[in-house]
């Protein structure tokens, strides 16, 4: 379980809040990088599942949660620099890295910047570019943007809904209501989210991905409305040593919808890398 109070790393003058699980384990550590507007708690129980085998660190990207919210706009390189500062704080010389959505873009940027520090990559519901092709529809994009004057619960419900499938929400109405309540516990400042959006919109790694030789597991739900499935398939095809797994019927936050299927796949994949 994550402790109530975070620890802090420093990336220049910016404080980065993090939690560390199973830190005494001897297997290669795992750094988990969250996506746009997400906080470390949005991983839910996935860090605990993956920490059965190894140390795991989760953190708030700059601009969100318990990390500092410096003025933007941000870049993927800045956000990857924050992740690297955390690795240095933890004195982790070589790690596995998992990133989802924007976090997958940060993970790619980090691996390109310091390939010797990364062993295996897990890239979920992400893309090789911020210019998604195909792009999400306008309804989805509108739901994700901060809404001036909107009631907090209404805005949270709209933003959360596009991360799941309509069928899953209909089948799990009480769980979805609990997810809305949970989301409202954490600080999500509009200016931090907008600064992160800039990092996503300017991210472009596709022409450099051939330089990455790391073993990679690319996971993508075929019902993802935020980053449609073909984006993940293209990313996997551009990587030299990737395995692509489609998660049938799963939306953007696939690990919250699949009853442990993806966590088992991730654990098995990482176990082959130490």
Brief synopsis:
By secondary structure, this protein is α/β, with parallel strands linked by helices. It has one domain: 3-Layer(aba) Sandwich (Rossmann fold), CATH 3.40.50.
Walk me through this protein's architecture:
By secondary structure, the chain is α/β, with parallel strands linked by helices. The model has no long low-confidence stretch (mean pLDDT 95). It is globular. α2 (76-90) packs across α3 and α5 (152-161) packs across α7 (173-183). It has a single domain (7-137, 190-271), classed as Alpha/Beta hydrolase fold, catalytic domain (Rossmann fold, 3-Layer(aba) Sandwich), CATH 3.40.50.1820. The protein has helices at 46-50, 76-90, 102-113, 138-144, 152-161, 166-171, 173-183, 190-202, 229-238, 261-271; strands at 7-11, 14-21, 30-33, 56-59, 95-100, 118-124, 216-221, 242-247. The chain has 10 helices and 8 strands. Strands 1-2-4-3-5-6-7-8 form an 8-stranded mixed sheet, with helices on both faces.
């Amino acid at each position: 379980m994550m402790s109530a109070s975070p620890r802090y790393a420093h990336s220049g003058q910016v404080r980065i809040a993090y939690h560390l699980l199973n830190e005494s384990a001897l297997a290669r550590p795992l750094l988990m990088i969250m996506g746009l507007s997400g906080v470390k708690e949005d991983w839910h129980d996935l860090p605990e599942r993956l920490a059965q085998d190894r140390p795991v660190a989760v953190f708030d990207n700059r601009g969100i949660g318990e990390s500092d919210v410096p003025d933007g706009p941000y870049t993927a390189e800045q956000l990857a620099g924050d992740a690297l500062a955390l690795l240095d704080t933890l004195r982790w010389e070589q790690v596995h890295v998992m990133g989802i959505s924007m976090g997958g873009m940060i993970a790619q940027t980090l691996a390109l910047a310091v390939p010797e520090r990364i062993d295996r990559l897990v890239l979920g519901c992400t893309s090789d570019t911020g210019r998604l092709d195909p792009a999400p529809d306008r309804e989805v994009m509108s739901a994700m943007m901060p809404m001036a004057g909107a009631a907090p619960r209404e805005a949270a419900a709209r933003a959360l809904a596009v991360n799941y499938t309509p069928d899953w929400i209909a089948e799990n109405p009480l769980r979805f209501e609990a997810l809305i309540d949970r989301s409202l516990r954490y600080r999500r400042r509009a200016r931090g989210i907008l600064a992160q959006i800039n990092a996503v919109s300017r991210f472009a790694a596709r022409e450099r991905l051939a330089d990455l030789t790391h073993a990679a597991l690319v996971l993508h739900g075929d019902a993802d409305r935020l980053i449609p499935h073909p984006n993940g398939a293209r990313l996997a095809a551009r990587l030299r040593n990737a395995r692509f797994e489609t998660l049938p019927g799963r939306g953007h936050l696939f690990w919250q919808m699949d009853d442990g299927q993806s966590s088992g796949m991730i654990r098995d994949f990482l176990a082959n890398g130490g």
